[in-house]
Design a protein that fits this description.
It is built from 6 helices and 22 strands. It is α+β, with helices and mostly antiparallel strands. The chain folds into 3 domains: 2-112, Immunoglobulin-like (Sandwich); 117-218, Translation factors (Elongation Factor Tu (Ef-tu), domain 3, Beta Barrel), CATH 2.40.30.10; 226-360, Rossmann fold (3-Layer(aba) Sandwich), CATH 3.40.50.80. The chain is globular, with a radius of gyration of 22 Å. The relative contact order is 0.11. The structure holds flavin-adenine dinucleotide and nicotinamide-adenine-dinucleotide (NAD). The site of flavin-adenine dinucleotide has 18 residues, from β13 and β15.
Length: 363
C-alpha cells in the first residue's frame, strides 16, 4: 500500500525526442515537471559517449548514447522542456540517434546513480588566509554543469595508488562581484575556498597541483533548495571555519533575488582573526548593504580582541537571532565542524526555532 502511494506521488517518467537539420541535431527532453532549470541538467561528452543527466525531484533521468560527433552544446530552458543542440561532425542525414549505452533512458532514484566525474583543469590558485586558498577549476568545453546553490561536489585524486574523494562547496569568485548565478567565466569556471591541513590526507595533494593540472569533479549533491529562501524576511547564517563556504552563494543569492528579504546576519566563528576568510569583503559588504550584518566570534583570540569570544552558546545565539518582527519568516543556515553544527541545532531547538526554519549542511 505504502509503495503504491509513493509510486503515484512520484514524478511521471520523462521522455525524449530528437530532430535534425543538415548540420544540427536537437534532443528534446520532456521532463513532465515544471520546476526545471539550467541547474537541473548536466551534460558531458567524453570518449565518444554523450551523457545528459536531468535531476527531477529526487530522481535522475539519463540519456546515454554513443554519438560520434564533434558538438557544441546549448541548453534552452523552457517550461519543463530541455533542448540540447548538437553540431554534426559532417553534414549528413542521420537515420538514428547514436546507439544506446548503459542505463540509457532510465529514470531512477538519484541516490542509486553513483557519482559521475569529469576532468577539470586548475586555472588559478590564490592565498586567502594563511591556510585557505581560492581554487578555480575549469570544466571541459563539452560539459554543461551548474552547481545549485547550497550543494557540493566531490573532488577525486589518486594518492599513492588509491582514489581519494572529498566533498567541497563551490563559492563565487568574490563576495562583491555582481552576482552571476552560479559560476563565472562563461559558466565554465568553478571556484572553491579550501583550507589546507598540513597533516591532512587530501588537501596537501590538492595544494601540490600545478596550474594546468587536472582533477576529477563529480556531479553535485546536497539537499538545500533555493525554494527554502522564498519569502524569507530574516536570514541568519551561522558558519564556523570553512563552514562559511555554503553561505557565500546563499548570501549573494538572497541579497539579489529575494525581494522579501529584510535582514541577513552572519555570525562567523573562527579560532583567530587570521583565520577569518574574506574578512574585509564581509565588512565592505556590510558597509555597502544595510540589510547585511556580520559578527565575528573567536574561540582563541588574543587578549586585545574586542569582539565576541568562545564557542557557539545560548547567550550568543539568543542575542543574535532577533526577528525583524514577531511573525517574520526566518531561515537559519548552519555549517561547520560536526560538534559545532550539532550543538548549534540543539541550541536552536531550545530557542523554539522549528525544523523548517533550520537548514544544516552536512555530507
Ligand atoms: P583530513 O585527513 O581529513 O584531516 C583533517 C584534519 O584532521 C587534519 O588537521 C588532520 O591532521 C586531522 N586529523 C585527521 N585524522 C585525525 C584523527 N584520527 N585524529 C585527530 N586528528 C585527525 N572544506 C573546505 O576547505 N572547503 C569546502 O568548501 C568544504 N566543503 C565541504 C562540504 C561538505 C559537504 C563536507 C562534508 C565537507 C567539506 N569540507 C570543505 C571539508 C573537506 O571535505 C575535507 O574534510 C577537508 O578538506 C579535510 O581534508 P583532508 O583529507 O586534507 O584532511
Ligand atoms: P576550525 O577548527 O578552524 O574551527 C572553527 C570554529 O568552529 C572554532 O573557532 C569554533 O568556534 C568552532 N568549533 C570547533 N570545534 C568545536 C567544538 N568542538 N564545539 C563547538 N564549536 C567548535 O574549523 P575548520 O578547520 O575550518 O573546519 C570546518 C569544518 O566545516 C570541517 O569539519 C568541514 O568538514 C566542515 N564543512 C562542512 C561543510 C558541509 O557540510 N557542507 C562545508 C564546509 C565545511
Amino acid at each position: 500500500q505504502v509503495t503504491d502511494t509513493l509510486a503515484k506521488e512520484g514524478p511521471s517518467s520523462p521522455s525524449y525526442d530528437w530532430f535534425q537539420t543538415e548540420s544540427l541535431v536537437t534532443i528534446v527532453i520532456y521532463t513532465k515537471h515544471k520546476d526545471i532549470n539550467l541547474d537541473s541538467v548536466i551534460i558531458d561528452h567524453q570518449d565518444d559517449s554523450f551523457r545528459a543527466e536531468t535531476v527531477i525531484k529526487d530522481r535522475s533521468y539519463l540519456i546515454h548514447l554513443g554519438l560520434f560527433i564533434f558538438f557544441s552544446v546549448q541548453v534552452v530552458e523552457n517550461v519543463g522542456k530541455i533542448e540540447i543542440v548538437l553540431k554534426k561532425k559532417e553534414n549528413t542525414s542521420w537515420k538514428c540517434l547514436g546507439h544506446p549505452l548503459v542505463d540509457h533512458n532510465s529514470f531512477i532514484p538519484k541516490k542509486d546513480t553513483g557519482l559521475y566525474y569529469r576532468k577539470c583543469q586548475l586555472i588559478s590558485k590564490e592565498d586567502v588566509t594563511h591556510n585557505t586558498k581560492l581554487f578555480c577549476l575549469m570544466l571541459p568545453p563539452s560539459t554543461h554543469l551548474q552547481v545549485p546553490i547550497g550543494q557540493h561536489i566531490y573532488l577525486k585524486l589518486t594518492i599513492t595508488g588509491t582514489e581519494i574523494v572529498k566533498p567541497y562547496t563551490p563559492v563565487s569568485d568574490s563576495l562583491l562581484s555582481e552576482f552571476q548565478e552560479p559560476i563565472l567565466c562563461n559558466n565554465k569556471c568553478i571556484y572553491f575556498l579550501i583550507k589546507i591541513y598540513p597533516a591532512g590526507l587530501f588537501t596537501p595533494e590538492l595544494d601540490h597541483l600545478q596550474i594546468g593540472d587536472c582533477i576529477s569533479v563529480s556531479n553535485p549533491e546536497g539537499n538545500f533548495k533555493k525554494s527554502q529562501l522564498q519569502e524569507v524576511e530574516d536570514l541568519f547564517l551561522l558558519a564556523a571555519g570553512t563552514g562559511f563556504t555554503p553561505m557565500v552563494k546563499i548570501l549573494n543569492y538572497a541579497l539579489t533575488h529575494i525581494p522579501s528579504l529584510r535582514k541577513v546576519k552572519l555570525m562567523f566563528f573562527n579560532k583567530t582573526e587570521d583565520d577569518i576568510i574574506w574578512r574585509s569583503q564581509l565588512e565592505e559588504l556590510a558597509f555597502k548593504d544595510n540589510r547585511f550584518d556580520v559578527e565575528f566570534v573567536l574561540s582563541e583570540p588574543i587578549s586585545e580582541w574586542n569582539g565576541k569570544r568562545g564557542y557557539i552558546s545560548p547567550a550568543l545565539l539568543s542575542e543574535f537571532l532577533k526577528r525583524s518582527s514577531d511573525k517574520s519568516k526566518v531561515l537559519i543556515c548552519i555549517c561547520g565542524p560536526t560538534p559545532f553544527t550539532e550543538q548549534g541545532i540543539r541550541l536552536l531547538h531550545d530557542l523554539n526555532f522549528s525544523k523548517d526554519e533550520i537548514h544544516s549542511f552536512t555530507a
